[in-house]
Amino acid sequence: MSSPLGKYTSIVVFGASGDLAKKKTFPALFGLYREGQLPATVKIIGYARSKLSDEEFKKRISEHFKLRNKDADASKVEEFLKLCSYHQGAYDTKEGYEELAKIIGEYEKENNVEQPSRLFYLALPPSTFTEVADKLKENVYADGGLTRIIVEKPFGHDLESSRELQKNLAPLWTEEELYRIDHYLGKEMVKNLLVLRFGNELLSGVWNKNHIKSVQISFKEAFGTEGRGGYFDTIGIVRDVMQNHLLQVLTLLTMERPVSFDPEAIRDEKVKVLKAFEPLDSDDLLLGQYTKSEDGSKPGYLDDSTVKPDSQQVTYAALGLKISNERWDGVPFVMRAGKALDESKVEIRIQFKPVAKGMFEEIQRNELVIRVQPDEAIYMKINSKIPGISTETSLTDLDLSYATRYSKDFWIPEAYEALIRDCFLGNHSNFVRDDELDVSWKLFTPLLNFIESDKAPKPEGYAYGSKGPKGLRPFLNKHGYVFSDEGTYQWPLTTPSVKGKI
Question: How large a percentage of the chain has pLDDT more than 90?
Answer without folding.
Answer: 82
